[in-house]
């Protein structure tokens, strides 16, 4: 699946400590990408429990870390101009991203 990021996401990601960025990247690679490949976003497979993915309106929320930082990220999944799904990262940080 293709992905894109918002400027706000890029800025917030750059501000995270290096070890927190690594926790996020590891969670995405090890858990989110396989779940998307299995069709979790289409209801064909469950979301990994460790990510606590839930939907808030049209936005998905995931938890990339429980211990240490309370790491969260927000994303959407929608079609690109060719109709193919694209994941759009909107925000990353801690529990305060919901405010």
Radius of gyration: 13 Å
- Biggest beta sheet attributes: 5 strands, mixed
Q: SSE order in H/E notation? A: EHHEEEE
Major β-sheet strand ordering: 1-5-4-3-2
Poorly predicted ranges (pLDDT <50, ≥5 residues)? none
* CATH hierarchy class name: Alpha Beta
Give the overall shape: globular
* Count of discrete domains: 1
Distance between the ends: 28 Å
Q: How many H/I helices?
A: 2
Structural class: alpha+beta
Mean pLDDT, to the nearest integer, reads 93
| CATH topology grouping | YaeB-like fold
Please identify, by name, the CATH architecture: 2-Layer Sandwich
The helix content, as a percent range, equals: 25-40%
Produce a short descriptive summary.
This protein is globular. β2 and β3 form a beta hairpin. The chain has helices at 7-15, 18-37, and strands at 2-5, 54-56, 59-63, 72-79, 85-93.
What is the secondary structure topology, with strand pairs?
Elements: E1 2-5, H1 7-15, H2 18-37, E2 54-56, E3 59-63, E4 72-79, E5 85-93
Structure notes:
With about 100 residues, the protein is of the alpha+beta class. Helices cover about 30% and strands about 30% of the residues. It has one domain: RelE-like (YaeB-like fold), CATH 3.30.2310.20.
């Amino acid at each position: 699946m293709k992905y894109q990021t918002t400027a706000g996401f890029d800025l917030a990601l750059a501000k995270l400590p290096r070890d927190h960025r690594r926790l996020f990247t590891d969670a995405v690679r090890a858990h989110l990408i396989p779940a998307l490949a299995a069709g979790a976003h289409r209801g064909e497979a469950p979301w990994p429990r460790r990510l606590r993915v839930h939907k808030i309106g049209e936005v998905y929320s995931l938890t990339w870390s429980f211990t240490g930082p309370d790491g969260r990220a927000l994303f959407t999944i929608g079609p690109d101009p060719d109709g193919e799904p694209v994941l759009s990262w909107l925000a990353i940080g801690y529990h305060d991203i919901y405010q």
